[in-house]
Specification:
With about 200 residues, this protein is α/β, with parallel strands linked by helices. It has one domain. The chain is about 30% helix and about 20% strand. The chain has a seven-stranded mixed beta sheet, sandwiched between helices. Strand 2 and strand 3 form a beta hairpin. It is globular and about 50 Å long.
Length: about 200
Amino acid sequence: MADELRRIVERMRLYAPIREGGTKQQKELGALRDLLESMARGGDSPYLDPRVWQDDPPDCIAETTCGALVAFEVTEFVSQEAIALSEKARPGRKAAPKNDRMVYRGWDRAGFLERIAAILKEKDCKTFKGGPYAEMVVLIHTDEPLLLRHDCESWLSDRQFGPFQRLTSAYFLCPYEPHVGYPFVRVRFGGVQPASADSRQGRKL
């Protein structure tokens, strides 16, 4: 057990590492569960029984309260450049660089929204396997150290994305906050949307 924990720590990246150490599927399912827990904490539980979907995409599936299937694409909002530069600063595989050698990405409104738009556009082009799905949802999670919840909420509040051919909704999961958990923001879509869960028939596996 100790050896496995040590190996997990060793393979964790330095930058925005909170979900690192497990498999890609564990990371995606963990983010989805955190979103649903935050929804339930706010008095809303639209999705039940989250689980990994083996035939990717989608990454995960869940069900509506009526038993219809919902597809989830789960992706991370993170600076790949900051990851690479921070890893390059390591003095050794098991060692972390000094704080002054770490690199942190600063996000402004334009860069943040541009990245969100690119993620949604990419996900809308995917062909979702299985189904039929009542909803196709994108979950974007982040652990960016300089990205504040207030900024995320403000930047997303007056911006609409889309229209999309497949996606029905998206959520942005903010970094963890003590005594709060993972705050989230529903991303606003504009234009003509795909049929909603009320008008599309799904099936339960």
